[in-house]
């Protein structure tokens, strides 16, 4: 397990959905802590506080996700929580189903597709490593809007990243990816650790060497290295006369860097 301490930043979020063409849905997705399993609850009538619908648990697969169990009800308050060697489906705080991940072929630290839920479960990403290597950016990552029956793919990127952040700012969709760990022993221009995108368009990408400034200004863990010390959260605040949407990270040599989400530019 990587030994770098993770610090969370304050989230102050202001989002706008109008004009992007996304219809609001009460269906949502929540994942377990590993991102290998997820639960999807969808109403048959698209309104809150209804119990008519379906709730399913899935195991993420490269092509078609595997359905584990199916319930004929909808709830706004379901979660997947780990306890000992099992995962529990919890509804309104009460366990309603449990299973052991190992029974489905999942082993600790075993590479596999990673699901990350966003914005109260209304959106999620699915990251697939081409060679089953967690410390590689080779693969694909897709963003989805959760819909009843069939989820809507918003965009697909030709890189693998288990840590993806999705933002809707002033009617525009922005994506930020952070690949923290890479196989190797020194920073270089090939390994992309941070990237900013507007839908399919690349705004800015930063290699490990661009952020570390020297090849060996890094943190090491066995046969891998990193230049980012803390996972970031979105810090969105307003300056006089102009709104600033900042994405903040902390490097392994204790530098705090802020980037404009809308351009990917490093704010000095």
Task: List the SSEs and their pairings.
Layout: E1 28-31, E2 37-43, E3 53-59, E4 66-71, E5 78-83, E6 86-91, E7 94-99, E8 114-118, E9 123-129, E10 139-145, E11 152-157, E12 164-169, E13 172-178, E14 181-183, E15 192-198, E16 201-207, H1 208-212, E17 219-221, E18 224-226, E19 228-230, E20 234-239, E21 242-251, E22 256-260, E23 266-267
Antiparallel strand pairs: 1-2, 2-3, 3-4, 5-6, 6-7, 8-9, 9-10, 10-11, 12-13, 13-15, 14-18, 15-16, 17-18, 19-21, 20-21, 21-22, 22-23
Give an overview of the whole structure.
The protein is 2% helix and 48% strand. The protein contains 1 helix and 23 strands. The longest helix is centred in the last third of the chain and has 5 residues. The protein starts with 27 loop residues before the first strand and ends with a strand. The N terminus is likely disordered.
The proportion of strand residues reads: over 45%
* Mean pLDDT across all amino acids: 86
Query: Would you list the SSEs in sequence order as H and E?
Result: EEEEEEEEEEEEEEEEHEEEEEEE
Helical content band: under 10%
């Amino acid at each position: 397990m990587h030994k770098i301490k993770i610090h969370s930043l304050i989230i102050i979020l202001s989002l706008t959905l109008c004009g992007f063409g996304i219809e609001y849905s009460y269906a949502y997705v929540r994942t377990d802590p590993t991102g290998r399993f997820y639960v999807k609850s969808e109403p048959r009538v698209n309104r809150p506080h209804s119990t008519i619908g379906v709730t399913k648990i899935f195991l993420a697969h490269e092509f078609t996700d595997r359905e584990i169990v199916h319930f004929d009800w909808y709830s706004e308050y379901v979660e997947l929580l780990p306890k000992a060697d099992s995962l529990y489906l919890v509804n309104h705080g009460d366990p309603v189903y449990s299973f052991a991940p190992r029974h489905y072929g999942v082993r600790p630290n075993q590479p596999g597709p990673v699901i990350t839920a966003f914005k109260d479960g209304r959106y999620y990403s699915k990251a697939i490593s081409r060679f089953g290597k967690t410390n590689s950016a080779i693969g694909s990552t897709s963003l989805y809007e959760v819909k009843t029956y069939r989820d809507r793919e918003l965009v697909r990127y030709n890189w693998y990243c288990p840590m993806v952040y999705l933002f809707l700012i002033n009617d525009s969709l922005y994506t930020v990816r952070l690949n923290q760990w890479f196989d190797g022993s020194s920073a270089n221009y090939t390994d992309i650790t941070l990237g900013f995108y507007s839908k399919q368009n690349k705004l800015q990408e930063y290699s490990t060497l661009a952020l570390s400034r020297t090849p060996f200004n890094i943190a090491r863990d066995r046969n891998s290295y990193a230049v980012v010390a803390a996972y970031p959260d979105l810090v969105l605040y307003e300056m006089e006369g102009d709104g600033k949407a900042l994405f903040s990270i902390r490097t392994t040599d204790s530098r705090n860097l802020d980037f404009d989400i809308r351009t990917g530019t490093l704010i000095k």
